[in-house]
Amino acid sequence: MYSQGLIGADSNIVEDQAFLDAFQQRIDAEEKIEPNDPMPQAYRNTLIRMIGQHAHSEIVGMLPEGNWITRAPSLRRKVALLAKVQDEGGHGLYLYSAAETLGVSREQMTEELLSGKAKYSSIFNYPTPSWADIGTIGWLVDGAAIMNQVPLCRCSYGPYARAMIRVCKEESFHQRQGYELVKTLCEGTAEQKAMAQDSLNRWWWPSLMMFGPSDTDSQHSDQSMKWKIKRFTNDALRQKFVDATIPQAELIGLHVPDKDLKWNENKNDGKGGYDFGEIDWDEFWRVVKGHGLMNKDRIKARKKAWDDGAWVREAAQAFAKKNVAA
Amino acid sequence: MSITIRNALLHSVVQIADDHLILGHRLSEWCGHAPMLEEDLSMPNMALDLIGTARTLYSYAAELEGKNRTEDDFAYLRTDREYQNCLLVERPNTDFAHTMLKQLYFSAFMKPFWDAMHHSSDATLQALSHKAVKEIAYHIRHSGEWVVRLGDGTDESSARMSAAVSALHPYTDELFETDAQRLHCIEQGVLPELGEIKLQWSQTIDTVFTQAKLHRPNIGFPQTGGRQGLHTEDFGMLLAQLQYLPRSYPGATW
Known about the structure:
The complex is a heterodimer.
Chain A: H1 2-6, H2 17-28, H3 41-66, H4 75-100, H5 106-115, H6 132-149, H7 158-186, H8 190-209, H9 221-226, H10 234-251, E1 262-264, E2 273-275, H11 281-291, H12 295-308, H13 310-325
Helix pairs in contact in A: 3-4, 4-7, 6-7, 6-8, 6-10
Chain B: H1 3-28, H2 37-65, H3 71-76, H4 87-90, H5 96-117, H6 123-151, H7 155-168, H8 180-187, H9 194-212, H10 233-242, H11 244-248
Helix pairs in contact in B: 1-2, 1-8, 2-6, 5-6, 5-7, 5-9, 6-9
């Protein structure tokens, strides 16, 4: 709220060519853009959309993993999972704060999430029917998130870049923790290993979809790259993820469900990389547009928490008001 | 340590561990569903403290017992009749008012308990008390502030807070219940006398309730039974969730 008072209040920016060129010059010189700096409205809007989506993803992402907190199979796993989901909530808080520096409030962003206007990562519209999914999410979903987010630590917008440094540290810990969980299952009984394989089968393709549409179809990529909000294209990051993950799966004896997967020594400028099969973009768009197995349940759960908590938030405000008055 | 005191201590340590695990479990149910994001962070924080303490206590119980059991054997492979937590901690979350009040009742008991444990003749519990008391002091502050805010907030929050007091106060007597084994531990200076602790508990509750404009009811018929393994029906559901995986896949390592 405080931040809203500052932002844009004193600016009468005329977005003429001279202004846009000067802004681009700062970006090209790798200067960080800070909350009170003049910036094109489209730059501001892009960041609000991106950081907001990122924050919403963290918050909605608490649900599929939270699904197993009360059923974690050992006390060690229980505290690890609880701490992990708590970390995701912390990222959400951090990111909402970063977005607030651009002149939008957390309440506003929350309302947009609940009304369906704002998007969140589609991966969280898949269910977590088994314990192995908790490991797979850490390993693949957080692993894919890291690929996307490490470059964001150098994003041109200062508050987002700085938030991402801490977020990435925690996400890499989650990734290792998730992999260790899946590895433990693979070293366990036949039933446990089957549980891990089944989970990989379900999460592999949705994880590849996390990088977004192919570069030829991505509507936001070009301008975001120019403004150094994004540093790599969707396809480049996806390739990097596949190349990093395949050896990890092989090490623990899991089979990646892609019949077209094969090593190609000419890829990555001759360094080699994996060729992989075509992503089912129909499924991707179907889930993005709200028709995944859990889309409706996720929003319903967030809405229920928000509505059920209204009286608490109202009471806190009423109490604060009385005590300021007193 | 004599066998008698060892057994008495084992019995009491498991009771205290059960209180912490079950209350922590209940708090953890909120994660992702809290009234505001800040509470989505702070309730898991308290749950982590409580489950952490439970883990230390179960491991100590396993050591006292000397049968090669682990913390997880205590948590995952005992039946409801073997669980000896007080009923207060197993009560369903119901709403945020119930949850914060339950937290306050329990923390207001554990704070003077751990303070007194600084002088315990048992080195393990004494060491634990120094860590636990810092955490529990924060839990009192957090839950106490919420009880005040809600008690003196809006008409609705005040009504909900009063309803929580009516529902949960009957379960508070059990916090101060002792049995032969716990008495033995008290006599040996391993566990503290509960008289002084009850006085401090009352003071904390009275202070918070005065600020929260709440009334402390007189309870004619306290609810007890948890220490004898006689639980409310909700507890079976809690254990069914908690123990689902180890029960479904006996012998597996996770």
